[in-house]
């Protein structure tokens, strides 16, 4: 009888789902037929199947339609601190999506050791004062995080470089997302980093296994 009760408890534990949360999924790649597109789809499917509420932004498609300009203009630079509400209004849908989310996922290819220019421009124009951070009041604490709604972040990327080379040069892309931006989020924000290295030499088996890793991670580790 005791063994049967134990099996029942184990079955209940296995069926327990991660509480549903609101997730922003940002994808940045120019080719809708690429492996990166498959990673984006795997991430979206895993999150939806886990019961999470999802909003998606396809940066290249949006840019092609004239819906997003990654270039911070001279006027925006002048009003960056002096009139930040004006800058926020120019990218309001993106700001609303970021503020709505409890977690966010970015899928992109690593180019020249970092994110594509379009993604970097999104960070420049959307992670604004009053949105992602506020001034800290002193040179020893220059900013304070403002995205306290973000309790989980996941970066998914591919790179031509092998893992050991990226470690040798300091892994700038990973450091940007996992160290540079993390202080902007909620205290205790959980992070995941999934990267397929040496992409130019990856076999079909390598790519399939990495897709599986993405699915498994996003099915179980949302905020």
Q: Can you describe what's shown?
A:
This protein is α/β, with parallel strands linked by helices. It has one domain: Flavodoxin domain (Rossmann fold, 3-Layer(aba) Sandwich), CATH 3.40.50. The protein has ten helices and seven strands. Strands 2-1-3-6-7 form a five-stranded parallel beta sheet, with helices on both faces. Helix 2 links the parallel strand 1 and strand 2. The longest helix has 17 residues. The two termini are about 35 Å apart. About 30% of the residues are buried.
Characterize this entry briefly.
The protein contains ten helices and seven strands. The chain has 223 residues and is an alpha/beta fold.
Give the key terms.
single chain; 223 residues; alpha/beta; Rossmann fold; five-stranded parallel sheet; two-stranded antiparallel sheet; 44% helix; globular
Topology readout:
Elements: H1 2-15, E1 22-27, H2 35-49, E2 53-58, H3 59-64, H4 74-78, H5 84-90, H6 92-100, E3 103-109, H7 117-126, E4 133-138, E5 141-145, E6 152-158, H8 163-169, H9 172-180, E7 190-196, H10 204-220
Parallel strand pairs: 1-2, 1-3, 3-6, 6-7
Antiparallel strand pairs: 4-5
Task: Label the structural class.
Answer: alpha/beta
Distance between the first and last residues' Cα: 37 Å
Strands side by side in the biggest sheet? 2-1-3-6-7
Assign a percent range to the helix content: 40-55%
The average pLDDT is 91
CATH architectural category: 3-Layer(aba) Sandwich
Share in β-strands: 15-25%
Count of DSSP H/I helices: 10
Characterize the overall form: globular
Radius of gyration: 19 Å
Largest sheet: 5 strands, parallel
Note poorly predicted spans: 8-16
Whole-number tally of structural domains: 1
H and E order: HEHEHHHHEHEEEHHEH
């Amino acid at each position: 009888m005791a063994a049967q009760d134990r099996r029942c408890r184990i079955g209940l534990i296995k069926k327990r789902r991660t509480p549903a949360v609101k997730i922003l999924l940002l994808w940045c790649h120019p080719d809708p037929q690429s492996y990166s597109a498959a990673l984006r789809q795997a991430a979206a499917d895993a999150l939806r199947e886990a019961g999470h509420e999802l909003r998606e932004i396809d940066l290249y498609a949006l840019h092609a339609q004239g819906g997003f300009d990654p270039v911070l203009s001279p006027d925006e630079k002048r009003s960056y601190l002096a009139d930040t509400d004006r800058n926020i209004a120019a990218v309001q849908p993106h700001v609303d999506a970021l503020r709505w989310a409890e977690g966010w996922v970015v899928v992109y290819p690593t180019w020249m050791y970092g994110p594509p220019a379009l993604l970097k421009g999104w960070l420049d124009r959307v992670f604004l004062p009053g949105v992602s951070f506020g001034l800290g009041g002193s040179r020893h604490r220059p900013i304070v995080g403002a995205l306290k709604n973000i309790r989980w972040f996941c970066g998914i990327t591919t790179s031509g470089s092998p893992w050991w080379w990226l470690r040798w040069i300091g892994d700038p892309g990973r450091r940007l997302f996992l160290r540079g931006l993390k202080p902007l989020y909620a205290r205790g924000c959980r992070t995941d980093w999934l990267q397929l290295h040496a992409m130019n030499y990856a076999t079909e088996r390598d790519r399939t296994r990495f897709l599986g890793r993405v699915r498994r991670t996003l099915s179980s580790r949302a905020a």
